[in-house]
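The material for today's practical consists of a large collection of protein records. Read left to right, the backbone structure tokens trace the chain's path through space. An example says more than a description, so a record of this kind follows:
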Amino acid sequence: MVFGSSYARSGTRGLARRIADATPPDRDRGADALRALAIGGVVLGHWLVTGLVDDGGALHDASPLEFLPQLAPVSWLLQTLAVFFLVGGQLAAKGWASARVRGAGYREWVGARLVRLVRPVAALLGVWTVVIGVMVGCGVDGATVRTLVKLVVSPLWFLAVYAVLTAATPLVARLHPLWPLAIVVHVDLVRLGLGGPQWLGWVNLGAGWLVPYCLGTAWARGELRDRMTGWVLLVGGAGATGLLVAGGGYPASMVGVPGAALSNLNPPSLAAVTFGLAQCGGALLLHGRLRRWCARPGAWAAVALVNLSAMTVFLWHQTAMMAVTLAGTWAGGPLQGLHTVPDGAGWVPARLLWLPVFGVALLVCWAAFHPCERGRRKGASRVVRRAPTARSETAERI
């Protein structure tokens, strides 16, 4: 037993060392760590604030934030989309600059980036088309089917916005973040302050996430290197968000709450954008420490593997949660923290106990569908075995 344990540890260290050796020396490991944290925040956030309530044989979604508004600070920690757009803008701008140096054209560059988004999405939609057909054929309640489809499809808006911004990188790479921020300010002033049409808020879907994306492209140009910039964004963004929530009528939760008159996320509000500025400032301040932490082979291997699986984790984490929930219905009665209404303090610790089960289900989904994200490549293990000749490929994949 001791020999087997030592052998496993030795093998893990060896894999970590090979991944580290295969990584180009100029790779920004701190930015990759920020992206891994952002993905982790999204997954945990969805698992904690999305409940599927068993209502007499039909499932409908409910949020603990609807019944326990004092949990709103949880959304401040786990709504990390601005950090993802910040890092996405930085990496896209660097990638475009590198492609131009290599002589690659725009079509080749954007095609390679977008295909890595489209291919895993196609697999998700294909599988769920079959699942929906089976549920309908088996007579599953229509409300349950609609709830499940909504949870699967709703995160795809994020990828649609991200794909558009990625494709527009050559145009927005030098756009100052104040321009899209000004659009958000005026949109909210008209729709919320002057009684304008509410559909105008959907302009913020592009403008709002363009703010951190433009900060990312500025970061790629070396314009956000000093710590003072990070502190200004953190303190200024947090202060503005506090004023908007306390005196501007914006909700405290940074994610949507069922039944709420106003959402900070659907569409993005000015409060969500200022909160994103604070997150970007915090990310810039953490960047150096994370980069030093990722100098350790074990830490970097974990970050690299999360980034290699980012799309699979993002697309399938809701499916993993729903699979566990549906399987739990076979137990005969509603299970606390899984099928019960999230309206009491006891729901929270019960839900925390289910998180490892969700993680196991997500690992199963990863094993089944990660090849769709890798495409024709044979995965990270093959890359690290070919470390002397695979540095550029590793840089693109991580």
In short: The beta strands are 51-55, 58-62. The longest helix spans residues 106-137. The first strand starts at residue 51 and ends at 55.
